[in-house]
Amino acid sequence: MLMTKEKTIFKQGKGYRVEEVIGYYIKSDTFCKLGAASQKDYYDCLMVINDDIGATSMKRLSVSLMQQCYNLWLKRGTYRANKIAAIMSILINWSKKNGISIENPMPLLEKTPNPPRKVMWEPEQVNQFLHTAYSEWKWRSIGLIVQMAYEWGQRVGDMRMLTWAAINFDKKRCDLEQSKRGAEVHLPISDPLMHVLKQQHETFGFQVLVTPQVYPSDGAYKPYSKEMLHVYVNAILEAAGLPRHLTAMDMRRTAITEMVEAGVDITQIKQVSGHTNINSLTPYIKHTYTGASEALAQRQAFKDKK
């Protein structure tokens, strides 16, 4: 069986330092196949690793040493520490596939879980984002991805890959099988969203995807990758004058939390979100002034009746 070029990178018996492996990895086909945003993120993490243990032999990467490194990385924040640790694990596994005989100590580290993300979009921020996105042809599909994620409380990934087969224009509904849990949800299409979807169908109805890249690549209309979506959303945020900490991924959390605050029955929320366990909705039940005010008002009303 023929071996790929990457399979013969490292020579048996020769010691390699971490910095050498990083150099090979950055030039590898594996790294080059990453999206532009991922390449930058990986590179930044690899440079931190290089600065901290670049001169260390790969065969000296013990659990104890990597735990010390991880504890040091925590000073950069939990999210960043876990990202660097994940990239380190990828680097070690890649080196193993390419000839370096070592064990990967990263799964044995005691790591701090990422704190739950709590960012919420304000309604006016959503409107400003969509207004800006729909003002430019190049951002049209991005705007629709975000609008559907917000209006339906769905994951951005499912909106990126949504097909016209899921859209029933006659019944004004979307019948979606979620990719994460396989849950089936049946979602009404509001009149404003219906208007946008019909416009989109007039332009892109000849192919499968609802929100393809607006310009064909290699003769085909392809879906946006996660990296591309991230780049375009950031560009729209900047053009709209909105904070850069907002992400498209926050739309599902925002929508579900708004339903909780509006007093929607949990069972009905599950029919939208696709959750099977009520406990899964706990992260969306945040403590807010609105919720507290409503609770105290109801309490006072009950007392007044006595």
How many separate domains? 2
In what range is the share of β-strand residues?
under 5%
Describe the strand arrangement of the main beta sheet, using strand numbers.
1-2-3
Give the strand tally: 3
Please give the largest β-sheet: 3 strands, antiparallel
Helix/strand class? mainly alpha
Termini separation comes to: 85 Å
On the 0 to 100 scale, the average pLDDT is 90
Helix content: 40-55%
Just name the CATH architecture of the largest domain: Orthogonal Bundle
The CATH class of the largest domain: Mainly Alpha
CATH superfamily of the largest domain: Intergrase catalytic core
User: What is the gyration radius calculated from CA atoms?
Assistant: 24 Å
Q: What's the shape?
A: globular
Q: Uncertain spans, ≥5 residues at pLDDT below 50?
A: 1-6
Task: Write a compact overview of the structure shown.
The chain has 306 residues and is mainly alpha-helical. It has two domains: 5-108, Orthogonal Bundle (DNA polymerase, domain 1), CATH 1.10.150; 123-249, Intergrase catalytic core (hpI Integrase, Chain A).
